[in-house]
Amino acid sequence: MNAQNLVAFIVIITVRCDEDLSIRIGLPEYICDKDGGVRDVSREMTTIRLLGKDAQNVGYKFDVNFHTIGKKCQNNQRCTLLLWRSVRELDRYLKTYPTKKLQSGLVEVNNSMFVPGIKYILNVTLIGGTVVQERQLTLDYVDDSVRKNVTKPMASLFLLAPDTSYAYAAYVVSADVNICSNVSSFYFKWELVGENSTRFPSRSAELVVPPDTFRSSLVYTIKCDLIGVEDGATIANSLQTVTVLSKGVLLRLPVKRLATGTGRSVRVKAYVRDLDNSDEEMTISWSCFELTNNEECQVEGDNSELEVESGFKNPGTYKVSIEISKNDVTLTDSCIVEVNNNAPIVDIEEIEFPSNPSTGIEIHASVYELKTSCTLQWTSPAEDGYEALDLAEVPGNVDAIVNVTTKEDFFLHELEEFNNGTVDRRHNLIIPPPSGGTLGKICNNPVQCEIDSWEGLKGDAKYLFRLTITCPSSDEVLDEFNETGAVLTDSVTATSDVIIETNAPPSVQDLEVAPSDGDAFLTKFIFKTSKAEDKDGDGPILYKFGYILGNRDVILWNLGDVTNCEATLPYSEDGIQTFVEGCDNFNSCGRVLGPLIQTKLPEGVDLQAILQRFLTRMNAADYSRAFLEGFVILQSYKSQEENSTREVISHRVAEEIDKLLKLEDYTDDQKIIANDLMENVNDYNSHLELSESVINKVLELRNRLSDESERYTQRKLLWNRVKRASSLHDIRNYIEISELIITTTNDPHKISLEKEKLRKQLPTYMEKLCVSLKKAQFTLELKTVILSVEKLNKNSLNNLISVPFEGNSWQIFARIRLGNVVKDARLKCVGKAIFKDYLDKTGVIYFADILNTSDINEAAEIVIYLPKNKSTDGTPNCLVYRSEWRSDCKVVQNIANYVKCSCKYLGYYYLEYSQVTDPPAVTPTSRAAATVVPTGPERIVPNDSLAQYRDKTKGNYDTVSYVVIVASVIGIIVLTVTVRKIFHDDDDKEDSETFEFPKYAQLHDEEFLNDAHI
């Protein structure tokens, strides 16, 4: 067989329809025979792809003809008859191809039906009206003899992506490649071609174009080149054209009613988004109208957030409206602001549109200036136009009434913080995602049964959620309530309404995978599903085909409007659980589980050949795929040769890092590659268990990159790239590298150095986070540090702020009141963190600082409430760190579970305990002697701690309370309440001398301070 022994397959596509259809028919240019290709994978089938959003909505008619190539069958009647028979079999096969299979978008032809030396001509007719287009594709069936006689690499490169997209959605292009030559390593080069040519940094077979990169009403062409790593030569290339559709501007005011007090700051946040990402200017204006007196009120704002710092002076009902204009389109929306004299302030954070019920719904609400005896509750009223929802049926007790009260402990009302002052708290509504049901299992736990049976919110629905707050109408009413304990009758009720609009994910159809079993890493499995059902305007659908391995989702292909793919699978003794997801352009996703596929480890195949999959990806700097290959190989071969496999992977990763470390200066692409490598080390190290030497190299690389203050990136397809600060993604990556070093290295000195570096770098990272922060708060939880960056506003600046945030995984947080540290809170954030065993302290260190400001008021008093360590005895002292630990904070109060400290500046805070005891007690002989107070007592430090002394003491005692009071012309202030044990002398019978101290109600075990004070 010579170089002419190949199959040429010509496909003539004739599209007949009444209007233009989005249909493409894809066919590889080259098909390798069974023994060919560098992947050592058997390709027994050739696939014809029916692509485009209309591909599954029409009928197909196939006709096959042929021509011989060269001198094939010349003057040989028998040979000619055999060729005719082969062509007729293929023609009959395609004409009778099942309609159901056509609807999957995949036509499969066994390679045994092709004969080398024939040029097949395939006519494909789409049923319809006039001819719209004709196109030809060729297919060459390549065997060993052909490869030996051809020097140029033979490869098929076909791009899989939808023909249309939207500017606000991510656009995914996947390259399907088949190489029939001995090319050991290759990568992909992606670029936008045309007037504003731009190269993408990705070297992977998958390109993800981020949202807001394209602009609407334009057509873009993406070029992909397949590049050989060894010589940099182009092996193959392909083009993908995409038309960006228009959706205009989106405006929503989710908060329809907002409660506040007179003269209090008001914030109203609208959700505004230019879905077209166009250049035209957008104008935003706010207006106000007082409905009670039918008068206009003055407000000013030119962005999506309106802040009226001085609030509204008079009680009443105010209608606040927003108007946006762009491209001759004007949109408006409005909300009602209810202003009452004694109402608390409600602040609702921005709510994105639409909401995705499959991931759960969260409404973040902050309530300021609450009084003791106030109550808060979320409800979902049954009103016309909204879905009915009983919050009592939602897991998590979300409809509970929260009481802000100090309970019956009236004595503590003497304290300043528990008087008729105000408190603040977050009261979020969290609707969990659907649980998926109990799946027929018997459930004996009522709480778990409730969670398992939760179906979640409906899709494409509108819900009304109401926050109701009831408080005493005046301080006099509160005083009367506190004195009598009667039911609160004279109260003020304020309500805030929030509208949630959900988006239903696509209804994904069943997934078929064939064959049902095969060899791991060798057998090609075909994944097929039917087109997902979704409403108009939500397409194109992005299909994610994958499987679950080691409790981790592994995505094989991300394909836009393509409902099939082929891939190899790893080995698992329990089988491989397959799945398919369908996501619309708002990234709402539905998932369907496919069949459980049984694979076996291939026999007679060296593990080193399997590892070549990992090495090939590493050579191409396609790190996401390379680390994924390493993960699945280790999972498949974990019962054998695991250590040697890990060594190969660690060694190759180390080589790649060394290559990057040798660079003197980093180009923009090299920085992207290095960050990508570090990210994958973070992501997969728990599975790969890279050696400590590799982790140290990662640390060195991180240090090199973190010293770079800025790096290049792409933005809006500009010819010249612009500089920007590190992204949220990069910053998170750097912090997680520190965490990896701290938690994996065995060198205490290196751990200490990395902790100190992270501590010093953290404020800089937080500054960058504040600049790029879109939502009100960013949080990150790690093993040794938990941090948060939160936008400031006038209300939060003057009230207590959680450090770092409530509900963190350590279940530890402090509170801080910043007061007049800064005058203007706009465009500023507070950085907050807790560290575990940092600096020279054991336990938790708290951090707080104002970001993006230089106008700190050094004379301001900062009040911080540090939680006590219940397992530690002694007297608490507040320390603050500024180059060293200082006693610049004084303890103001030591109450309940917190210590209140007053500090001069922001920084790191620590609660330290000194082990001291009171002087020996003097037993008085009379009441008169008992009134003598010793002056200048000598403190004695015992050999035993106070707790040890108490445990060793077996004598009888009574418990009494001492009250320390300072009286002046201003009034009486209670400084502290101390509980002491008075031990009895067994020989003392003088009962008449027993002192009678007043008794007070015992404190509740629960931390009522969270409700009434903090």
From TrEMBL:
The chain crosses the membrane at residues 960-979. InterPro entries: PKD/REJ-like. Keywords: Membrane, Transmembrane, Transmembrane helix. Residues 276-547 form the PKD/REJ-like domain. This is PKD/REJ-like domain-containing protein. It comes from Tenebrio molitor (Yellow mealworm beetle).
